[in-house]
Write a structure and sequence with these properties.
single chain; mainly alpha; Hypothetical protein af1432; 21 helices
Length: 441
């Protein structure tokens, strides 16, 4: 892979452009388009760890995404500074701020495809097609690859779909779309090798496979089979930014909520520190416990960013050749300390009673919504009459109702229904379920 091609500022369906204009680069425009988009605004009421948080210091998907983007921008700039020195020909067209902007934009969008109720919501949508009688009936109407999409809902693939839906008008650059795609392969992939990080999950549905083929071709991504590719190198930085933030900041939230004691959290954070250990003396000058944890979090993130940037630069050629295929945090010196944080988080934060209760509700709410709205979609697509389902059809957003009305393909209809249900916020999904089931008015 070649860096100049990988930094393509081209947008699908538009004339060739240069990376920068007078005031904003093409990649800065990507960031702005995402942050003003409707799917991004919905993240303010979507679960990060603790669903429907009652406290303003607990992270939602929106605050998490903003923080991941901030870390991603710093990683991109750190790496970019060295890359431009190694490859001075790139400096004629790009700056370290361009690299920072690509990673920041892709990081900002990394959770756009997440449904209500977090990862439990992904499982609940999949379970509707796997386990519910209504969902299983659709199997005879779709191909094997399409059925694999439906039974393995994946937030990363849904995010790629959202970024390329005409209704949002995002039209992101190929560079940002490439950096966004951590798993450049489909759901149905017989040759999948899960020891490779890029094949652990999947990054696009059958409905967007042609779009991703075009992205891969434009960027010069190396194909590993006729349906899979090596990652865009900057996807490793997007992944690292997310890994750093969720492991470190989830622990901070757990401490704020009283699920992890201060002394235990402090010890876990201190174990991560390498270069910043010398700054621990400042803790004695900070009075509040929450402020102390915030300071430790900042030190830990700073050290982890340095380690990941160094690793990326050390393995640059392997990454470009596709022979490096593991998460950066899994190779960094603080890996064991991070593993201990994740272990404690699983035991004390992710399995906390409130989390489990709300996730259990998600497994009831989302299949319940899909049962009713998939029927409504079928009736609408086939022009069948039913007072009940005609009422439900009116609850679809206008653009989805129009698209389903003209659709002839069951898989595409179901994708539109899933777009609607997975795009709901946690509270909206819960209140809509109660209303259509007659539990509340």
């Amino acid at each position: 892979m070649e860096w100049k091609q990988l930094f393509s500022p081209q947008r699908a369906g538009q004339s060739p452009v240069v990376a920068s204009e007078q005031s904003r680069s093409a990649f800065e425009q990507d960031y702005d388009r995402i942050i003003f988009s409707q799917p991004f605004r919905r993240l303010q009421d979507k679960t990060q760890v603790h669903p429907l948080p009652e406290y303003d210091f607990v992270h939602t998907r929106l605050t998490h995404s903003l923080e991941v983007s901030s870390v991603g921008r710093s990683l991109g700039k750190r790496v970019g500074e060295d890359l431009l020195k190694r490859h001075p020909e790139l400096a004629k067209e790009f700056s370290l701020y361009d690299l920072g902007s690509i990673v920041a934009a892709a990081s900002l969008a990394h959770d756009l495809g997440n449904p209500p109720f977090g990862h439990a919501g992904e499982d609940a949508i999949s379970d509707f097609f796997l386990c519910h009688a209504q969902g299983q009936q659709f199997k005879v109407h779709v191909t094997e690859a399409e059925w694999c999409d439906l039974t393995k809902f994946e937030g990363n693939a849904q995010g790629f779909r959202i970024l390329n839906k005409n209704q949002y008008g995002l039209k992101l650059t190929y560079a940002t779309l490439g950096a966004f795609t951590k798993y450049p392969c489909p759901a149905l992939f017989p040759g999948r090798d899960k020891s490779k990080r890029s094949q652990k999950k999947f990054g696009f549905f059958q409905s967007e496979k042609d779009i991703f083929h075009a992205v891969a071709g434009q960027l010069g991504l190396v194909a590993t089979s006729d349906i899979s590719w090596n990652r865009h190198p900057l996807a490793f930085l997007v992944e690292a930014a997310d890994d750093i933030c969720y492991s470190i900041i989830d622990l901070e939230d757990g401490c704020s909520l009283g699920l992890v004691g201060y002394d235990e959290a402090r010890a876990l954070f201190e174990n991560v520190l390498t270069k910043n250990k010398s700054k621990l003396g400042k803790l004695d000058e900070i009075n509040g416990q929450q402020e102390k944890i915030g300071y430790l979090r900042a030190l830990a993130i700073g050290d982890l960013m340095g380690e990941c940037a160094t690793l990326f630069l050390e393995h640059e050629q392997e990454i470009l050749h596709g022979s490096f295929d593991t998460a950066l945090v899994d190779k960094c010196p603080s890996y064991q300390a991070l593993e201990e944080i994740i272990k404690v988080s699983v035991e004390k934060i992710y399995r906390a009673r409130k989390v489990v209760e709300i996730e259990a509700a998600g497994h009831e709410v989302l299949p319940g919504l899909l049962e009713e709205f998939s029927k409504a979609g079928m009736y609408l697509m086939e022009g069948r009459k039913s007072r009940k389902y005609e009422n439900l059809q009116k609850l679809f957003p206008a653009e989805i109702e129009v698209a389903i009305r003209t659709e002839k393909n069951v898989y595409n209809m179901l994708r539109l229904v899933i777009d609607f249900v997975s795009g709901l916020t946690d509270r909206h999904a819960l209140s809509l379920y109660r209303r259509i089931k007659g539990i509340s008015f």
